[in-house]
Amino acid sequence: MTEFTETEACRLAPFFTNVDATVFGLKLPQEVAGALFSRYSRTAKSLRRVFLDEFVGEQGLAGGLLGGGAADDGDALKKARAFYDRVLVGYGDDSVAQLGGAHLAVERVSNVAAQVLEDARIGIAFLEKSTRYVRFDQRDAAGDFLWFREPSLMASRHRDAYAALMDRLFSAYAAQIEPMIAHIERVLPIESVAVRHPRTGEPLDFADVKRDEDLLKAARRAYAATVRAHACDVMRSYLPGATLTNLGIFATGQAFEHLLNRLLTHPAYECRALAAAMRHELDRLIPSFVKRSAESAWQEGLRARAAAAARRALPSGELPAPGVTLVDFDRDGEEKVLAALLYPHADRPLADVRSRVNAMSPPERTALLSSLAAGRRNRRDKPPRALEEAAYTFDLLGNLGIYRDLHRHRVLSQERQPFTTVHGHDTPPEILEAGHGAVFEECMARAHDLHEAVKTDHPAEAPYVVPFAFRVRWYVTLNLREAVHLCELRSMPQGHPDYRLVAQEIWRRIEEVHPGLAPWGGFVNRDTYRLGRLQSEMRTEWKRAGRSEERR
Questions:
Q1: I need a labelling partner for 67 at 20 to 30 A (CA). Which of 103, 203, 495, 528 fits?
Q2: Residues with Cβ < 8 Å from 392, sequence gap 6 or more?
Q3: What is the pLDDT of residues 8-51, one digit of tens each?
């Protein structure tokens, strides 16, 4: 029996996905939904009854909506925003700001600013223009390559050198991208690449592929897409921090507030200007959620004090080689994970469960851990939360391209050092094989020299001149559950070869210190590939062909 009369159901229908089930969606502006949920938490009424009793009608918050007015001009939003002023600002109820959010597009920002944006990790999601699927040899309407004209640098004595370096890097990329595609096709022809049937997974000889016209077409399309992606992977080493990109952002109001505060105190002009532009647009979408965002002198002061302390206490010295260093880990991680796995199925206190696990012999613990890890069918069978009991801290040194890819992981703590040229750069072997080594090294040398000149006058702007080939140092602290996710995902055959090596090495170090936990990473791929993406592209093409058949 429905809770609502026929008239009430008609009034509810435009704003909810259904009017009679216990699970339903809201079709309301963000701030009305947030205000409704907040009121909902303080009453015994059902949500739709609260909406009818308090949010509908001439005196209700949704009156403007039912009257057919525009959502951002009606009484609904005006009253909802007044409600937020009372609750969020007046009472400091931060949870209210988690109940709504907004989508924001941020275009033509540098990769330097993009990384600052993507430092945010709680309550926020990003999608960024890919260096794998999008070529960066395009020019804008004015005929210029797509790089950020950083105002301080463009007004400084480094202006000409900065512009010349940008033109050199992008010109080299543009000149070499097609020859690189041809080179990859020449050294790795389609006939030489191992292929599996996209449906059955069975290995295929290319002679078998050629006998099946549909399979041959799919293979050729997949091969072409794979080669283009691989060429883009190689050529991204030329791209500087100033490279323009586009991002799509979805965040809760609270996450946007914290992000704006971080941008407002950033030493780079672009980040501060971006904060102002984002705040302007968010004021048109969810003004109540970002009302408290304002510049914080404390953050800026902390940054300055930490930098000064680092200069005094940490003088420059000989720099270690790039790689993956396990800095810290839980010595009793195996015991803690096993105890956490058993705890939900016992009736004893955690301390007692741990004590009994510690009393087991190492072979007994290892066998039990292995048996509990058995049965995962693929990496999408996620390990349980018990694996969060073991934590690891890694210091990583790898090229900026690797950092950009691994930076996207959210369920971990990470901090980086400035993008710099001091750690040297990686030279993709394909660039040497294709005969472009001399040009590449000349470009990297010019970038290093300009970076050294710029960082003295404009330290906050020096990262704009650093190409992706140069190495950056950062650390990550992650638990075992996240390590399984990261290492299994980032070691997949279609992943970039550079970050695949990092993921494999992270897992190898975990296996060394906690061999009993190794079975939980059963889908970490330890193999090497030259065109590892081909198989996933084959599956995509096969699905596309199947959909085309269905449409016909």
A1: 103
A2: 326, 328, 329, 330, 477, 478, 479, 480, 483, 509, 510
A3: 999 899 889 999 888 888 888 777 777 777 777 677 788 888 88
Cα–Cα distance, 391 to 238 (Å, whole number): 36
Q: What is the DSSP letter of 345?
A: G
Percent of the chain with pLDDT over 70: 88
Please say whether the beta carbons of 202 and 426 come within 8 A: no
Between the CA of residue 224 and those of 217, 230, 539, what are the distances in Å?
11, 10, 14
H or E element that contains 414? strand 413-416
**pTM for this structure?**
0.85
Length of the chain: 552
Helix (H, G, I), strand (E, B) or coil at 75: helix
Determine the pLDDT at residue 46.
87
- Any residues with CB less than 8 A from the CB of 450 and at least 6 apart, and which? 158, 161, 162, 165, 465
CA distances from 299 to 10, 258, 263, 278, 336 (A): 51, 12, 10, 20, 36
- List of residues 6+ apart from 435 with CB closer than 8 A: none
Q: Specify the residue for token string 């007015």.
A: 69
| Three-state DSSP class for residue 387 | helix
Cβ–Cβ under 8 Å, residues 324 and 394: yes
- Cα R_g (the chain), whole angstroms: 28
- Residue listed under structure tokens 């613990």: 365
Cα separations (Å) of 189 from 185, 194, 206, 218? 5, 11, 11, 15
Q: Which of 128, 127, 120, 122 is nearest to 259 (CA)?
A: 120
**Residue keyed to tokens 């950092």:** 403
pLDDT band for 477, please (50, 70, 90 cuts).
Answer: very high
In the numeric block, the tokens 């941020």 are attached to 106
Supply φ then ψ for residue 56, to 5 degrees.
Answer: -120, 150
pLDDT tens digits, residue range 363-405?
A: 999 999 999 999 899 999 999 999 999 999 999 999 999 999 9
**Residue 351, CA distances (Å) to 22, 332, 334, 387 in order:** 40, 14, 15, 17
Distance CA 306, CA 526 (A): 40
Continuous segment of H or E residues that includes residue 329? strand 323-329
Residue 519 to residue 484: CA distance in whole angstroms: 10
477 three-state secondary structure = strand
Residue 474: how many CA atoms within 13 Å on its side-chain side? 25
Look at strands 203-204 and 323-329 and give their pairing: unpaired
Say if CB 488 and CB 382 are below 8 A apart: no
User: In angstroms, what CA-CA distances link 100 with 39, 256, 375?
Assistant: 14, 11, 39
Cα angle 47, 48, 54; round to 5: 85
